[in-house]
Amino acid sequence: MKNLLLFVSLMTASISANAAFFQGSSSGTFENPVGAANMQVTGVGTNSFSWGEGAHLGYSWAKNCFFCLPYKQHHYSDPSSLTFNGQSFNTDVDSAFVVGSLYFYNGTIYAGTEATSVDFSLTFDFTAPNSFDETFTYNFALNNTVNPQGDTVKLAAAAPEYFYSFEGNDYYFELLGFSYGGKVFDEIFAKELKGKTVQLLGKFTSIPSEVPLPAAVWLFGSGLMGFMAFRRRAKMNAIA
Prior knowledge:
There is one protein chain. The chain has helices spanning 2-18, 215-239; strands spanning 22-35, 41-42, 48-51, 56-62, 71-76, 80-86, 88-91, 97-106, 115-128, 132-142, 151-155, 161-166, 169-180, 183-185, 187-190, 194-208. The protein is 18% helix and 52% strand. It is elongated, with a radius of gyration of 30 Å. The chain has 240 residues and is of the alpha+beta class. Mean pLDDT is 84; it is low at 1-17, 216-220 and 234-238. The N and C termini lie far apart (89 Å). Strands 2, 3, 6, 8, 12, 13, 14 and 16 form an eight-stranded antiparallel beta sheet that branches. A six-stranded antiparallel beta sheet has the order 7-1-9-10-11-15, with no helix packed on it. The protein has a two-stranded antiparallel ribbon with strand order 4-5.
């Protein structure tokens, strides 16, 4: 029985030692698109956002049966789109971690129907060190130039953002960028009619919280200032 209790204690200690400081899961939605006067968008408020009217790409001849007359079958591009898939995380402070995956499809769309930017709301549902949720908002610039090279989605620069205080430390979150090919970038590139999946990387950082001075220090300071004022008044009275 003693050996069993010792084994359970050691297992508990091992699990506690290996548990990261921040644990939970992520999710994301796309909000507040901005674009042309005739902008066409779908999926606002969800994790899958598309923009633009798919352009006509051409046609091919098709037949419904062997003896049927051929007819023109027109082909249109799908709209451009972004899809975010969140995931669970288990990370320590000052360690880069995968927030989720982002898929970018670069469709060929008609000019005047495009979105030029969209906000990305990233939400963390924390389970450790406490249970709470926090949302951070970032802006993606959407490039829609029709060219054979391709288009980009660019992450606007954002400073680390404070979100939590715990046991004498203030904690911040920073979205580091898009990770693919072993490197981190601030934009995604995809050729026309092609898609690309990247990972979003983030990092939690911390600094010590401002420690308020004890009440005794304030009382001492107030008393010292009062004593100095009394001495100054007594000196002026002596001169008079």
